[in-house]
Every structure is written in structure tokens, then in C-alpha cells.
Amino acid sequence: MPLLALVVGSMIGGGIFNLSRDVAETTAPGPAMIGWFITAVGMCCLALCFQTLANRRPDLDAGVYAYARALFGRLVGFLSSWGYWFSAWVGNIAYFVLLFGTLSLWFKGFGSGTTWTAIIAASVLLWALHLLVIRGVRQAAIVNTISTIAKLVPIFLFIVIMIFAFNFELFTGDFWGTESGLGSIFSQTRGMMLVTVWVFIGIEGASIYSARAKHRRDVGKATVVGFILVLVLLMLVNLLSHGVLQQAQISGMAEPAMAGILESVIGRPGTIIVSVGLVISLFGALLAWILIPVEIMQVAGEDGTMPKVFGKLNEQGSPSAALWLTSVCMQVTLILTGFMGEGVYKSMISLASALILVPYLLSALYATYLAFTKSTYENDPSSRSRDLVLGVIASIYGVWLLYGAGLNYLLLAALLYAPGLIIHAWARRERGEKVFNSTAEMVLAGLLVVAAIVAGVMLSTGAIEL
Predict the structure, then answer these.
(1) What radius of gyration do the chain's Cα atoms show?
(2) Fewer Cβ in 10 A, N or C end of the chain?
(3) CATH number, domain at 216?
(4) Residue 25 belongs to what domain range?
């Protein structure tokens, strides 16, 4: 149950409450259904890859990072852990902004979630969560299980009400987005890809905690069951909304869009129901996403990929150094949001999604590699073909997501990946090893630095922006 709650709790954060608007900004119902089909197939294969990897390589703890290292070596493994860690806490900033923007329903001083009053309140919550986690991961996991169960109630209520209020003629009125001028079906489908990645981030949550699971088979089960449950909820929330309001109405709604949609059907109580559910949901999601990046950094520090200090545990068994670094980074970024104005939430979720694409793709490639080389299949050759197909599809999906992210966010991701090379060098020198083990690693590092420089120049000139 705790592993399943972690997977569901990680994925069902704030994203589902604003999903309808985020998708409607670029996509009509018809292309959205195509996009969800692509997402369902791709993410299902990715979930099954995580299940396969958890069963076939139970010796690899911390999933995403460990798979990248096993396939491509220490530098790529480090970059995977660095990108995953960065993605997690950047996503937390989006959660903080959305949380206090929602609380402005009762406390007007919070505004859209980026006023200084909201930033101070978010900082207090950040350090309260920090203290909870530093007292022990197990205590925090119990709280996460409770919040996961609690958050599902308003979501199920929303779906039931939408089913009864659904208008099929409204749903099919501008089915392909031709009247709205949203572009081709292909461009609309591509436009929703980063949004779908955002709402599925956390699919690997159980594999990150594989070392703490009582039975390794529980890791795979939690991943697949959690994926199916969340997929159904996401599709229903998104598509049913188009049977209640037009695409233009949904895309113009304030955050969280689910509140406005439900209010259009049942009045003011709709906003209150969704807002309460969102507050509970975001608390659980923040707790889960403080736990996950800290765990992956701790394992990386323990095995030598990160500096040793990040691998140390306190008396309660929590990785305190990794937690402190994560919390400080979030605090600094929270302060910066006060100068960023509107649109912080959308910028943060897009950047978090772009950062995590590489770790996901590397995991799919490793699953493909194991099946292709027959490694770990000596006693189970019958399932190799199936796993190979799953790995290939998940890998193709990963490449498609990189394309869907666009050059803008890929360059911004490179800008954040590049500083990690300094931490990598620190870890290597700390152990008396070479910073780079091969020419290929040197070339990779060089390309990353060049991309980061290009991104920095373009960002400073306004050619790209968050």
C-alpha cells in the first residue's frame, strides 16, 4: 500500500486540477483523444519497462538513476540523477505557486501565488515539510498514504458530476479545433505532450524506493496499478470537461481550472470542493516530491556518483545533507518567483517535464538493451520478445517527447544540466578518479557546455524565455 500510495500520490499532485486548461490551450477534444492514446501506449510501455527492470535488476537501487549508469556509465548516470533531482524540486515550485494561488480564495493576500505574502507562507510550509522528512522517511510515508486517499475523493466527485452534466453536442461542436484556429491535428497533439509528461511524473516513484520495499515484485505491481488508475482519472477529467464548456472557455480559466469548470455546473460549492481537494493533494504531492529527489541523491552519494556528503543518513535514517541542499535550492527559487510575474506555474511545469525526459528515455533504452542482449533472460527466454517490443516502443515514445518539448525547453534543460558537471568532478576527485573515463564522456560534457552557453546567450537576449 505505501508504494502504491507513493506512485499515485506523486502523479496526482496539482497537475490534474489544472489539466483541462493546460491541454485546452493548444488542443481540441479530437486531437486530445489522439494525444491521450499516444500517451497511454507510451507511458504504459514505460511503466512496464520499470516493472521489468525492477524484477530483472533488483540489485539496482534508485531506479531511474541506476539504470542510466548501468547502461552508459558513471557520467550519464550522474547526469540522469542530477536532471531527475532538478526536475523534482523545480516541479515543487509549481506546486507551491498553485497551492497558495488556490488559498487566495480565502486569503486574498496570496494573489496568484507569487506575491511576497504567498512566498513567505510557502517558505514556512517548505521548512515544515523539511522538518517532517528529516525526522524519518517512514513517518513521512505514512502521511503521504493518508493524503493520497483523501485527495481522490473530490476528484471522483468531479468526474461523477461531469458525467451527469455531459453534453455530447457541445463535446463534438468543434471536435478537431478548426473553428478555434488551433492548427493542424499533428501540431495540437504535439502541443499537449509536455503537459501529459507533467501529470505522469512519478510513474517511477516505486522504483526509486525499491531498496525499501519488502518484496521486489511489489515495486512492479505498484507502478503498473498506479499508472492505470491515474491514466483513467486524467483522461476522464480532461475529456469530460469539454462536454460542459467550450474549448475557449476552458483555456481562459484561472488556476485551478477544475474549480471553474465544476462551478459552472453546481455553482460556488464547486470551487470550494475543488480548492479543498487541491490543497490536500498538493500537500501530499509536495511531501512525496521532497522524498523522491532526496532519496535518489542519497543513493548516488552512497555509491560514489555524487559526493560522499549526500550519501550520509542521520539517526532517523533520513539523508539530511541531500535534504538540506534540496530545501535551500527550493527556498532560493521561491524568492526568485517574486520577480517573475504571471505564468510561473506553466513555466515551472514545462521546465520540470523537459528535465525529466532524458532519465525516462535512458530507462527505456536500458530495458531494450537487456532484452536485445538477452541479459538476465537466461532462465526466462519466453518473455524476452515481449519485453523487447515494450522497450522499443517506450524508447520511441521518449524520443517523441524530446521532439514535443521543443528547442526552447531542451536548451533551458541543458542550461541546468551543465552546472552538474562541477558536482560530478567533485565526486570523482574526492575518490581519486578521473573526471571522465572516456573520450565519449568528454565529448558529451563538451556538447552539454556548448548547449548551455547557447541557452544562456539566447535567454539573455530574449530569444528564448521561461
Answers:
(1) 21
(2) N
(3) 1.20.1740.10
(4) 2-407
Residue 211 within any structural domain of the chain: yes
- Average pLDDT rounded to a whole number, residues 247-259: 91
Is residue 456 assigned to a domain? no
pLDDT digits (tens, 9 = 90+) for 145-180: 677 777 788 899 999 999 999 999 999 999 999 988
Taking every pair of C-alpha atoms in the chain, what is the biggest distance, in angstroms?
Answer: 68
Taking residue 424's Cβ as centre, other Cβ atoms within 10 Å add up to 24
Amino acid of residue 20: S
Q: Which three cell numbers stand for residue 412?
A: 533551458
**Torsion of Cα atoms, 312 then 318 then 321 then 326, to 10°:** 140
Q: Is residue 439 part of a domain?
A: no
Burial of 402 per CB tally in 10 Å (0-12, 13-18, 19+): middle
- pTM comes to 0.90
Question: Residue 191 in 3-state DSSP?
Answer: helix
* Residue 165: partners with Cβ closer than 8 Å, 6 or more residues away: 243, 244, 265
Total number of domains constituting the chain: 1
